[in-house]
Amino acid sequence: MGHTVARLSDGVYRIGIAIEGRAGPGESAPVAAKDALSLSWAGGGELKTLIKAEWRGGLPLLNGSALLCGFYLNELLLKLLAREDPHPSLFEDYAAALQALVTEPAGAPQAAVLRRFEVRLLAAMGYAMQLTRDVDNASLDPVRMYNYAPDRGPRLVVAHVAREPGAHPRVVRGSTLLALAAGSFPDAESAADAKRLMRDVLDHHLDERRIVSRRVVRDLVSLEEGME
Fold first, then answer.
1. What is the pLDDT of residues 74-86, one digit of tens each?
2. CATH number of the domain that 60 lies in?
3. Of 59, 66, 117, 173, whose CB has the highest number of CB atoms within 10 Å?
4. Which domain holds residue 192?
5. 34: Cβ contacts below 8 Å, ≥ 6 apart
6. What mean pLDDT is predicted for residues 100-107?
7. Residue 68 belongs to some domain of the structure
8. Residue 109: exposed, middle, or buried by beta-carbon count in 10 A (0-12, 13-18, 19+)?
9. CA dihedral of 106, 117, 219, 199, whole degrees rounded to 10
10. CB count, 10 Å around CB of 155?
11. Do 80 and 21 reside in the same domain of the chain?
């Protein structure tokens, strides 16, 4: 059994598919998780049975850090999207992100691609982030600090105002939120702040489901540092 993110006429669609049997003579070998396929399935229940899979092409070949980023995007889709809940235009955002990962160099440029997709994914799910105005509908000040709560948005940090009981919002600069809105990060500090904020927001919506590809990347980085 597997979970598949499929592209239908009305957008991205997550389904559960059982793959039975082996490839016979003349049939293609198993496909990679990032391949674009045309799928046919049967079944009216939650778990479908795969009847036919044809390679469509059209998605770029990922290698190195781009491949790890691609696995991360796939995992976000699989763990955040509800089954059989289509999302118009999300496949186009996904395909554009993969293409950008191929053309952008590793490091900050690829990280910016991930942040842009994360923001668009949340918006497609109905959890659009408030990135240009605070909870009082005032324009964000780039030099001020804000408490960002995933379910409310940014609130200006005021020294004499006590934090709500049990609340632990991320403190972030207004310039970082505006950079997320623009999808462009002018310096390493704003890029790092944006990464931390997006992790908090995504973890809030993941509801204790872990993103395994994050740990894989951390382990690889630690291995490389240990070999230097």
1. 899 888 987 767 7
2. 1.20.1440
3. 117
4. 145-206
5. 59, 62, 67, 70, 71, 74, 98
6. 92
7. yes
8. middle
9. 130
10. 18
11. yes
